[in-house]
Amino acid sequence: MAQFTRIEVATAMKETGMIPLFFSNDLELSKNVLKACYDGGARLMEFTARGDFAHEVFAELTKYAIKELPGMIMGVGSVTDAAAASLYMQLGANFIVTPVFREDIAIACNRRKVLWSPGCGTLTEIARAEELGCEIVKLFPGEIYGPQFIKGVKGPCPWTNIMPTGGVSTERENLKSWFDAGAYCVGIGSQLISAAVLQSKDYAGLTQKVKETIAIIADLRKK
What we know:
Layout: H1 6-16, E1 18-22, H2 27-39, E2 44-48, H3 54-68, E3 73-77, H4 82-90, E4 95-98, H5 103-111, E5 115-120, H6 123-131, E6 137-139, H7 142-145, H8 147-154, E7 162-164, H9 172-181, E8 186-188, H10 195-200, H11 203-222
Parallel strand pairs: 1-2, 1-8, 2-3, 4-5, 5-6, 6-7
């Protein structure tokens, strides 16, 4: 069962402005990465469940977060059908992120009042997702559409909340382009949690990078 309401999840996404994206089938490595992000100020983690037995790792990671990292909101990404969404919600997922828009996932998540963020690439998909109760739409792959897509959508539909994933980096100018266009928050994967960081186990460096990125976003929003 989810530990946080969908309103709490949406609020945390807005407040921090960033969601780290990460996957590993190594539980201890995953715990260290999660704690490093938490220590840097992140309060959400999208576990991009792309490997075999990913649900087993997520279950243990969520138990760890509940016990050791108060306020950390665990969610799952790369979910492609309602069955997988239901499984992860049973394991404690507080939000579900998908690469595509699927109504069966919307129904499963809405039934449990869990926030879901579908990958959409057209205004028609976005409108249909919102009709089904979607609060925050995922723009994926972000680098294909770019910040101008968000700006274009926000013109006729200022109520639409969009989270770009893919093509988002920790560099100030990159972040500025997304938030100036009207992004609600951003998802950052390998540009934040890089292969180099994982290989060297530079968790202190990751904590600092997360802290700096959140600070940049907060500063951009003041202007």
